[in-house]
Write a structure and sequence with these properties.
This protein has 206 residues and is of the alpha/beta class. The protein has helices spanning 21-24, 30-44, 103-119, 136-146, 160-166, 182-187, 195-205, and strands at 2-7, 13-19, 123-126, 151-155, 172-176, 190-194. The model has no long low-confidence stretch (mean pLDDT 94).
Length: 206
């Protein structure tokens, strides 16, 4: 089992915690991590883009000039794609970009992402990640103590004081154990997680 330091809110080491290898020490599967990120981005796409084909553009019912004898190339409609105001060739239409991953693949991808953060030394466990009041400046001091600029903060329970304090800080996102995902883990440089959240993740994914 890997061991990492446990810090307080002032970034002082106050202890140590053992991480289960079943969650934080797996073999990293880069392909599954890539697929998990791709799935999240694809599922977030609205897919509502639309352009008109030549059959949908208004007008163009009359042949612009006779077939032969004008010196022009033959034309059948002023709404053909080569005309200004004409339809679009292979125009995009509304579609669903989403696709599914198996539950086991999702879990393996998440474990791989968490393992990568631990192995890179970007996984910081805090014994008591809470605030007594809503104060952005207070939480910013904690981030400064850890020398973090772009951080994902993972909580075990909903803590409105901390969530609201972190909300206005650029490049900082708060999430909970039940909403943690591969995309966010990889997007942010560091992972700041409460000790109780670590145990909750192990309970769910071990």
């Amino acid at each position: 089992m890997a061991k990492v330091s446990v810090y307080n809110m002032q970034a002082e080491v106050v202890g140590e915690i053992e991480l289960k290898d079943e969650v934080f020490g797996v073999d990293i599967n880069e392909h599954l991590v890539h697929m998990a990120v791709l799935q999240q981005l694809a599922n977030n796409r609205q897919g509502t883009q639309k352009a008109k084909t030549r059959g949908e553009v208004r007008g163009g019912g009359k042949k612009p000039w006779r077939q032969k004898g004008t010196g022009h190339a033959r034309q059948g409609s002023i709404r053909a794609p080569q005309w200004k105001g004409g339809g679009v060739v292979f125009a995009p239409v509304p579609r669903d970009y989403s696709f599914k991953l198996n539950k086991k693949e999702k879990r393996a991808a998440l474990k791989s992402a968490l393992t990568s953060r631990v192995s890179e030394g970007k996984f910081f466990v805090v014994n008591d990640l809470t605030l007594d009041e809503i104060k952005t400046k207070t939480f910013q001091k904690t981030l400064d103590a850890f020398k973090m600029n772009k951080a994902l903060v993972v909580l075990d329970e909903l803590d409105q004081n901390l969530i609201l304090s972190a909300r206005n800080i650029p490049d900082v996102k708060t999430t909970q154990v039940n909403t943690i995902n591969v995309f966010d883990i990889l997007k942010y440089d560091s992972l700041l997680i409460s000790e109780s959240a670590v145990r909750a993740i192990e309970e769910v994914y071990a």
